[in-house]
User: Fold this.
Amino acid sequence: MQMILRFILFLAINFAGLAIGSFFTTAVTEPWYLGLLKAPWTPPGWVFGAAWILIMVCFSAFLAKAYKEDEGTVRKEFILVFSGAWVLNVIWNPVFFHFHKVTMGLFIISLLALFVFRFFQYGIRDMKWEWVLILPYLIWILIATSLNFYIVLYN
Assistant:
């Protein structure tokens, strides 16, 4: 029962972050974004929404399983890494889309990739098969980082 409640809590927190960030993604239809040179591997727009839904469901399940209530130092690190990743994921959208700070966006998304990689390390070390639930996030954030990097290089 606690696992289900943790899953629902992480799902709510993660989707709240996506909702906040989505206020700024309307810029994908604005001339600034449309005029950018984008990487040839940039997926169509609809893929982003579908990918984030899958990522956040898997990530929430990963978090629900990974969270340890009775391990002080490990739990504190977990909360710190989760909070940092959540903030970075949310602030990337306004920095990139609203303020058009693509280099700062690259810095933020690179930090986010490191935070997600930390979860990957934690999963590999402490979980059985459930660590695979972090892979969609890790793979996606690496792709997103490469897309942001391409925009920095060619614009």
